[in-house]
Amino acid sequence: MTDHPDLGSRPADDPRSRAEALRRLIERYDHEYYVLDAPTVPDAEYDRVFVELQALEREHPGLASPDSPTARVGGVVAGGFESVRHSRPMLSLSNAFDDDAVRGFDRRIRELLAEAGVDASGLRYSAELKYDGLAVSLRFERGRLARAATRGDGAVGEDVTANIRTIRAIPLHLHGSVPEVLEVRGEVLMWRADFEALNARQREAGEREFVNPRNAAAGSLRQLDPALTARRPLRFFAYGVGEVAGSEASRLPGTHSGLLDWLAAAGLPVGPERAQARDADDLLAFYRRIGERRAALPYDIDGVVYKVDRRDWHELLGYVARAPRFALAHKFPAEEAVTDLLDIEVQVGRTGKLTPVARLAPVFVGGVTVTNATLHNEDEIVRKDLMIGDRVVVRRAGDVIPEVVRALPREAPEGHYRRFEMPRDCPVCGSTTAREEGEADRRCVAGLFCPAQRRQALLHFAQRRAMDVDGLGEKLVGQLVDGGLVRTPADLYRLDAATLAGLERMGEKSAANLVEAIDRSRETSFARFLFALGIRHVGEEVARLLAEAYPDVDALIAEDWDALTARKAAVQKENARRRARGEPADPVPLEGVGPEIVDSVRRFFAEPHNQQVVRALLDAGVRWEPAAAPAAGASGGAGPAQAGALQGKTIVLTGTLPSLTREQAETMIRRHGGSVTGSVSRKTDFVVAGEAAGSKLEKARALGVAVIDEAALRAMVGEPG
């Protein structure tokens, strides 16, 4: 038998003692889940313990007891609600975990029908989802909702009528002709998106977060104050009936699939994911189809349910102690499991993001063996109070990367656990890391140097709007990096045609073309060069502003950024006074470049590794024409653009121009003092429209904004076509 950490030192070879310990453990789990609404273990762990107890009782019949959890449906009645005895017990379902169990279910159904003298050739199954929520019973009398109760222990539940009435998905009265008494069985659940929003509100209010959507649904439904339940986004799916009485009872459909359609027509929500099946192969096909779509569903499920479709055969097939013979729950591989957190390591992503990763004792979850799981960031580790050495719950849903959900209560001596601290230096290259204000992630700032960021840095450096190295794509960059030929962008300028021709899918002509493209990229602009460096938050527009304000890299490295920030604040304050007096404003240093960007630029150029790569690029011959009259130098900050024919004009580009690319047109406009924006407003001076101009042109006409073509733009600035 499999040992379990919560069973203490109870010997596994003593069946009676083992059974007693398992029963106590299951009772504890039941109390935590059904009474406290605070489960400490995932379903998979509960199922494992339950299956072990079932096996023990089968192997040793003398251990069977009416007090055993295996003889009950599960759950207990909590205090605070009136008790409701169900007119018909709300039973659980037998579980299947593999294909053989499903085939065995189909075989037993056919054998039982044959024993009863029934022709099973017309056997059909109804297949539907096994929702991960809270089972309830809704009693309708003369079509109106009279009472609602939780399943409780299957025989007695809790009266939650007032709370159920707050769920808008549940009708207060049914449509059409319905039996005098109709007891509808179904599941209260919470959509994943609603669950995330609820937990966000819990965090903001400083209140306890819910473990999962089912826990949130149960906790919400079992509030003593219905007003609180009303504020929770609960849903409902009907999946069957209990007691049915009255003149219309005989008119209910004779099949389970027909019954679900009838319930939907009566106004009750019924799950849309349903199918009919002829045999075990059809059932398994449904199981696999739903399994592939499981992660995309808006709510949690933990399996599918198969039921014999003909309802008159249900009583014929009968029941076992805690479940009907005519139905089976086929459960998916556990999405949550318990294991040990052995260590926490840090990975550096392609953009420099540092991600803590849990190293776990191997555990089978979600259909695979998991040894690593994401911890997202250092704030998440603190929020979940995780320590190395913890017993943790791991979750894996579909193809989503496994994550550590929470730690279980600590029971080992204090020295068994160790706190984790996020490194302040990059674990890959040793460079400085930084965490910007308001962000959860810490990042390595040496993007040009860090091996973890090489591919991303090279692809960004070579893109068309940066250094424009034509032919340097993702696969080729991968070969250059993996082969050790290129470590930083500066190494590109040392490549020769012979070396490149030796790479996979690179002939001599392609190699020669790439060498020519690399050589051609040496001639660039300072703005393009700054953008190519991949400085965080520095896009093309910010790179242009920096290039207008500083003549070269040395000026950026030498800048006193604190002094610049102080000058900027002083000018902005003085301009506020000038506007109040009706006076023209002074130029603002680096206007349009906020403090986050300034900090990012400061950190980039303060990192020695980045400076080394920039120097290597310049030594390799990368150059640009210096600005004729830079607006400001290293000491002065940025000033206004050079005056020109478009000085102070706001211009929008739309459509395809005859001879200018979008970038060339923007450069021309800025060279003559204008600014380019992406949207049309009443403040727009004019729109330059080309072929296939769309909504921007229509908006310009509607607002009465002037529209010109490329020829008119060239005439305004005096540049020939």
UniProtKB/TrEMBL annotation:
Record: active site: 130
SMART domains xref list: BRCT, HhH1, LIGANc
InterPro entries, per database record: BRCT_dom (IPR001357), BRCT_dom_sf (IPR036420), DisA/LigA_HHH (IPR041663), DNA_ligase (IPR001679), DNA_ligase_CS (IPR033136), DNAligase_adenylation (IPR013839), DNAligase_N (IPR013840), Hlx-hairpin-Hlx_DNA-bd_motif (IPR003583)
GO cellular component: cytosol
GO biological process, one term: DNA replication
UniProt keyword terms in alphabetical order: DNA damage, DNA repair, DNA replication, Ligase, Magnesium, Manganese, Metal-binding, NAD, Zinc
Annotated ranges, domain BRCT: 641-713
EC category name: ligase
Top-rank lineage group of the source organism: Bacteria
GO molecular function, one term: DNA binding
Binding site for Zn(2+): 426, 429, 444, 450
Coiled coil: none
Enzyme Commission code: 6.5.1.2
Any single Pfam family the record assigns to this protein: BRCT
KW Magnesium (keyword) present: yes
Cofactor(s) of this protein: Mg(2+); Mn(2+)
HAMAP family: DNA_ligase_A
Family per record: Belongs to the NAD-dependent DNA ligase family. LigA subfamily.
PANTHER family recorded: CHROMOSOME TRANSMISSION FIDELITY FACTOR 18, DNA LIGASE
Protein name per Swiss-Prot or TrEMBL: DNA ligase
Species of the source: Zeimonas arvi
Taxonomic lineage of the native organism: Bacteria, Pseudomonadati, Pseudomonadota, Betaproteobacteria, Burkholderiales
Gene: ligA
